[in-house]
Amino acid sequence: MDYSIISKELSFPSKKELDHAVESLLKHCKNKTKFKAAPFIVAVGGNDNGDYTGESLKRSKFNQKRFQGSIFRNTAAAGSIFQSCTFDNCVIANANFQECFFPGAQIMNHEEDHAVTNTNFNQSLFDGDFLIDHVKFQHSVFQKTAFINGNISNTNFYSCTLEDTLFDNVNMNRIRFSDLNIDYAEFNDIHMDDVVLPFSQICFTYGLLSYLMTTNDSVYITSFCSSEGRIRKEEYLDLLDILIVYYTGTYDLFPLANIYLAQGEYQLAQTAILSGILSASNEGNFRLIKYFSKLINKYEVFDFHDRQKIYDYINTHISFPDLTKGDLFNYLSYKYEIETFLLDNNKSGIATAELSIFTNINHRETLKLGFLLTTLEKIIEFGSTEKEEHHITCRHNSNVEFLLKIQDVYEALKIIIPSVYSILLGSFILQEKVTKRKLDKIDLQYKKTQREYELEKAKIDLKRSQIALENEELELNKKKQLQELEKQKVQQEILRKDITKNDIQVTKVHHIIYGNIPSDAPPEIIQYSKFK
Fold first, then answer.
1. Confidence band of 498 (pLDDT split at 50, 70, 90)
2. Which end of the chain lies in a sparser environment, N or C, as judged by fewer CB atoms within 10 Å?
3. Helix (H, G, I), strand (E, B) or coil at 120
C-alpha cells in the first residue's frame, strides 16, 4: 500500500515566467528587495563585511561564514540558519533573528560601541559548542530562546527580556544580568564564575534557586544596599524567610512555591501550587497556569493521578460558554504546554516512544478495538518498569489508527518497541536483537554477581558456605529469569496468533524514541517503520 502524501509533482515556471512575476509584484512595493528570483541565500565559507541594512535574509542558510564588521541594521533574518558562523564586531541593531538556528556559532566583540541593540532573538537556538564573548546585548529580546552546550563570557544582558529562556549545560563567566526580565527562565546543569543575577527575579526562575543553594560557584546578586551594587549568594539565601513572608502576604504563589520546593518543603509547596492554580483557573490566567504546570513537571512531588486530577480541575473550572474569542485564543495558545507538563512523565531518566499503528479496523467494530487495546496493554506490560506511564489515542477517518505514547526508561522501551512489531506485524528484525539483549543482560548480571562473590570468597573464607548458598540462589534466579523470558515468548506467540484469529490486520507501524537515550542506541530502536 502506498502511503505517499504527494500525489502530483509540482510544475515549476520557466526563468522568463519567474522574472515576469517578480517584475509585476515589485510594482506594488516601495522596498524593491521584497521579491527576488532567488530570495533565500545559501552561502558557504569566506569573509563577509557587507551592509544588509533593511534587507531580507529570511530563511537563508549560511555555513562557516565569517561576518567581520558586517552591518545588520533593520535586517530581517527570521528563520535563517547560521551553521558555525562568526559575527565579529558587527553592527546589529533593530534586527530580527527570530527562530534562527546558531549551531556552533560565535558572536564576539560587540561591546559598548557596537552593542547588539533592539534585536529580536525570540525562539532561536544556540547549540553545538557555541560561544558568546565580549558582547553587550541591550534592549533585546530572547523569549523562549535556548542556549544549549556552549559558553557565554564577558557579556552583559542589559535591559533585555529573557522570559521562558533555557540555559542548559552552559558555562557562564563574567556575566551581568542587569535591569532585565528573566521570569520563568530555566537553568539546568550550569556553571557560573563571577556572574551577577537580578535580585528580584531569582525566585521566578526554574532551577536557579536550587542551584544557588548547592553550588560553590562564584555568584553574586544585585543589591542597592551594597557599595559594590551586589551581595554574595549566601547573603541572598539568608533573606529567604523574609521573601516567604512577602510572597505569602502578597499572595504571589509561584515564587512562594519555588522557594518551598528548593527547601524541600514539599507539602507547603503543594499547597502553594494548588492554591495558585485554583486562583489562576478562576481568573482564566492560562499563562500562569502553564508556568505552575511546568513547576509541577520539574519536581516529582505529584504522582500521575494527582497531575491528572489537577488537569481535570483546570478544565472543569474554566467556564467555556463565557469565553470570548480572545479568551479562547488565549486558552488554545497555552493548552498544549499545560497538558504536556501535567500529563507527561516527569520522573528522572525517562525516554519517550511515540508509535503510530494503522489497522483495518472500522470504528464500529468494538470487539476488535477492545481486543487490540488489550493486546497493546499486554505488550507494554511485558517490558515496563515502575516508572512507566502511557496513553493510547484512537482516531479514525475510515479505518482506525492508534497513537501510542509510552514513557519509561530506555532499557524498557527497547524491549517493548520490538515486541510491538513482532506481535502486530510478525516482524522479527528487531525481536532477535532484543532477545539477545535480554539474554546478554541476564548473563552479564550473573557474571558480575559471580565475580563479586568470588572476591568476597577470597577475602572471607569463613563465609564459604553462605556464599555457596547465595551462589546457588543466584543460579536459581537466573533460571527463573530465563523461564520468565521463555514464558513471555510463548505469551507473545499466543497474542500474535490471536491477532490473526480475530481478523485484525495491522498495515503499518511507525515509531520514534527521544529523550534520555544512550548515544550508541541502535538506529532501528530510535526510529523505524514497517509496512505489512
1. confident
2. N
3. strand
Q: N- to C-terminal Cα distance for the chain?
A: 8
Q: Residue 258 is placed in which grid cell? A: 519555588
pTM value is 0.82
Look up residue 468 and give its three cell numbers: 555457596
Distance of CA 338 to the CA centre of its chain: 14
Q: Is 131 exposed, middle or buried (0-12, 13-18, 19+ CB in 10 A)?
A: middle
Strand partners, 137: 116, 157
Is the pLDDT at 1 greater than 50, yes or no?
no
Q: List, for residues 396-418, the tens digit of each pLDDT value.
A: 767 889 999 999 999 999 889 99
Residue that has been written with the C-alpha cell 499572595 in this structure: 251
Q: Is 131 within 8 Å of 172 (Cβ atoms)? A: no
* Residue 370 · residue 364 · CB < 8 Å: no
E-assigned strand segments in 323-408: 351-362, 389-396, 399-408
Element (H, E) at 324: none
Residues 28-50 have pLDDT tens digits of 988 777 788 877 777 889 999 99
| pLDDT tens for each residue of 226-269 | 889 999 999 999 999 999 999 999 999 999 999 999 999 999 99
Output phi, psi for 507, to 5 deg: -90, -25
C-alpha to C-alpha distances, 274 to 140, 243, 268, 334, nearest whole angstrom: 34, 20, 10, 18
Provide CB contacts within 8 A for 160, sequence distance 6+: 137, 138, 139, 140, 141, 142, 180, 181
Beta bridge pairs of residue 362:
399
Q: What confidence category does residue 180 fall into, taking pLDDT thresholds of 50, 70 and 90? A: very high
Cell of 343: 500529563
Q: Do 310 and 302 meet the contact criterion of CB atoms below 8 Å apart?
A: yes
**Which three cell numbers, joined as nine digits, stand for 281?**
483557573
In angstroms, the CA 410 to CA 15 distance is 52
Residue 312 exposed, middle or buried by CB count within 10 Å (0-12, 13-18, 19+): exposed
* C-alpha cell, 363: 470504528
* Residue 314 buriedness (CB in 10 A; 0-12 / 13-18 / 19+): buried
User: Residue 6 pLDDT > 90, yes or no?
Assistant: no
Rounded distance between C-alpha atoms, residue 360 and residue 304, angstroms: 33
To which residue does cell 543589591 refer? 223
Whole-angstrom Cα Rg for the chain: 29
